[in-house]
Amino acid sequence: MTVSSTPQNNTPTNLSLSGLLCYCRSGYEANLAQELDAICALHQIFGFAKVLPNTGFVYFAFYSPETTDRINEAVRFDDLIFARQLIGVFAHIPDLDRSNRLTQIHAVCTTLLPEGFRAQTAVVESADTEDGKELAKFCRKFSVPFRQHLRAQDWLIQRKTKQALVGVTLHAFFEHGSSIHLGISLPNNRSAHENGIYRLKFPSDAPSRSTLKLEEAIHTFIPKSEHQYYFNDDVNAVDLGACPGGWTYQLVQRGVHVEAIDNGAMDDALMKTGRVDYFAADGFKYQPQYGSVNWLVCDMIEQPDRVAQLMTDWLVNGWAHHAIFNLKLPMKQRYVAMCQAKASITTQLTSANIKFTWQAKHLYHNRDEVTVCILRTS
Ligand SMILES: C[S@@+](CC[C@H](N)C(=O)[O-])C[C@H]1O[C@@H](n2cnc3c(N)ncnc32)[C@H](O)[C@@H]1O
After folding, report:
1. Ligand 1 binding pocket includes 247 (Cβ within 6 Å)
2. Domains in the chain and their CATH numbers?
């Protein structure tokens, strides 16, 4: 068997797909399904989303097969708010023989993988739910014979990689022990993390666990190569609803000077860094004390339309250049609330001749909230 050094460039990826598989936080299946319905309808991809409450995933079944190329063009992972992962499914085996799973998987792959297909990585996954913990253990064990089998068939590259997902990746998603979805994800249109989960270590000196939300947001929305440009010693920010300081901590760690606004108390150690000015004020009335700032961040627990309007006002008034904020969504119709917020902000920023990019994600560290990042473009 030969191992090419750049096999992902050559491997055929235009498979015939029977549906789309997306992971999400348990309890968010209906929101994700609504979103997939809307995006697929927009691109005339006909099918229906199968929703099973609290399963942590949604399967959108196509009425007739679609190609990876068409789906990859129409459905973009970065556009999906509630999806943690995006996989094009080429086979669903609902009745896997538990005593000999690999035989059926082999037969399906032989029939459906195109000639010369070779994935760069392969993962065995299950939903991130309380009930799914045992299944997750099984998946970890099963991944060893699964990968060995793929390598033996030349469907997977021999080389070991540090990252879980590199290049074209083959996914085996177990719904339960005898139901599996087989699919592929492409590097430019998915989460780079196994199970779509961005695991971060909690910094022991951070004032609150909320710090992980902003850290994940920065990694998710801003390419690593641009971190230094967006966050450095010359950058300043306002943090609305800052206490006890988890978000301010992330900014200060990156050299940013922060005006922290809240009526609560800020973390002492953070105040001693000399990079934080604290103002006990109402975030809805506060105006920047030292002129406009590079960043507005906001984690206040408030109605999403009020926060959306506040962010818009800051950007339109030129008080802040970019913004990262949470829209708290305790209601059921979260997708609808997000569409309304996006429409309102987009209309007003466009009228003010502001060019910007909009990104929104229900991050792994979020609860009932979605994080939005608005970057002004020149
Ligand atoms: C979820 S906590 C923020 C946690 C913070 N991001 C962190 O990482 O530590 C929400 C904060 O918003 C503040 N808050 C809520 N409404 C506010 C308002 N109108 N003006 C200023 N702060 C407000 C609360 O006092 C609370 O500290």
Report:
1. yes
2. 7-196 (3.30.2130.30), 211-376 (3.40.50.150)
Q: Tell me the pLDDT tens digit for each residue of 118-173.
A: 999 999 999 999 888 899 999 999 999 999 999 999 999 987 788 889 999 999 99
Q: Is 282 in the pocket of ligand 1 (CB under 6 A)?
A: yes
Q: In this structure, what token pair is assigned to residue 337?
A: 């609330």
Determine the pLDDT at residue 9: 52
Q: What is the dihedral of CA 129, 134, 136, 139, to 10 degrees?
A: -150
290-317 burial, b at 16+ Cβ within 10 Å, e below that, comes to eeebbbbbbbbebebeebbbbbbebbee
Whole-angstrom distance, CA of residue 332 vs CA of residue 188 = 31
pLDDT computed for residue 173 by the predictor: 98
Ligand 1 in reach of 7 Cβ (< 6 A): no
Residue 7: predicted pLDDT: 42
pLDDT at 285 over 80: yes
CB 246 within 8 A of CB 274: no
d(C-alpha 160, C-alpha 172), whole Å: 18
Give the integer Cα–Cα distance in Å for 110 and 104.
10
Can you state the angle between helices 133-152 and 101-112, rounded to 10 degrees?
60
Distance CA 170, CA 223 (A): 25
